[in-house]
C-alpha cells in the first residue's frame, strides 16, 4: 500500500505506505508498532515513546555525550544501553547523536 502527502487547502494529508514486513513508514520516518513501543518503554533510558518519537532520560543523554567524546560510536553507545539498532534505524541514531 503506497500513499503520499498532499496539500489540501490549509491542511496536509499524510498517508502511509506499508513495507513487506508490515512496518508502516512515512517518507523518511519509521513508525513504531505497539509492540516496539512497549519494548522501548521497558528500557530505563527512555522516558516516553510514541509512534514517531522517543524521549530519552537525562542521565542517558549525559552518559551518551561523555562516551561519544571519549571515542565511542553512536551505534556502540545505543547497543550498550540496551537499544536494538535495527529497530531504531541508523538514521535516527545519527540524528539523535547530532542533537
How does this model look, in words?
The chain is 40% helix and 19% strand. The protein is of the alpha+beta class and 99 residues long. The strands form three sheets. Strands 1-2 form a two-stranded antiparallel sheet. Strands 3-4 form a two-stranded antiparallel sheet. A two-stranded antiparallel ribbon has the order 5-6. A hairpin with a 5-residue loop joins strand 3 and strand 4 (24-25). The relative contact order is 0.11. The model is unreliable at 7-17 and 24-28 (pLDDT under 50).
Tell me briefly what this model is.
This protein is of the alpha+beta class.
Strand runs, count: 6
Largest sheet: 2 strands, antiparallel
Strand order of the largest sheet: 1-2
Tell me roughly what share of residues is in helical segments: 40-55%
| Computed structural class | alpha+beta
Number of helices: 5
Large-scale geometry: globular
The sequence of SSEs as H and E is: EEEEHEEHHHH
Q: What is the gyration radius calculated from CA atoms? A: 16 Å
The percentage of residues in β strands lies in 15-25%
Round the mean pLDDT to the nearest integer and report it: 79
Please give the alpha-carbon distance between the first and last residues: 33 Å
Low-pLDDT windows of residues: 7-17, 24-28
Sequence-ordered SSE layout with sheet pairings:
Blueprint: E1 5-8, E2 11-14, E3 17-18, E4 24-25, H1 34-41, E5 46-49, E6 54-56, H2 58-69, H3 74-80, H4 85-88, H5 90-98
